[in-house]
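Please review this one:
***
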Amino acid sequence: MYKFTKRLIDIILATIAMILLSPLLVPSIIILLFTGEHEVFYFQRRVGYKNKMFDIWKFATMLKNSPNIGTGEITLRNDPRVTRFGKILRITKINELPQIINVFKGDMSLVGPRPLMEVSVKLYPEEIRNKIYNCKPGMTGIGSLIFRDEEKIVSDAADPKAMYAQIYPYKGQLEMWYQQHASLYTDFMIIFLTAWSIVSPQTKLVNKVFKDLPQRNF
């Protein structure tokens, strides 16, 4: 019943979001047509439900060959591969909005673990790797909330790859917490907190709402 209701809510909220966000989506498409590399959307293979691969939709923010340039799959703050308008899209998270299409298609939900590239999924401990996508990946989730500034954390680290190796085991614990507490209440609160974090990026409200989250040890 929960899965059916969640899917129905996904479709309803995604439809509302598409309408309300059109003043952001349409201008972004037009600007990308004139300032990007003649590509509006960027498609990338990600690990999804039951570890099956799918193509995620994003606004194009980087140079075409970026996965084979510089730090590869790791994107840093002030990354030279990111286009000028792409920086604005990434800071505001507008680049993630086309994933509403993935929600309509059923590849993703509004709330769930973030879908990652296969190389990044391997950073999770094996027992978490085998369970994390027992639920559909989401546009937002508890891991996304806690690590909203992940790009900055990694960029400020002396060794970005070593920092990722620290982040992922803890992020995996957060996603296991979500699966244990999955409910419509949890999903609605994560959606609310995601919106609130855009208005108040330094908010600590998530730990007040979810008081039993795994403790961060780094």
In short: The chain has one domain: 2-199. The mean pLDDT is 89.
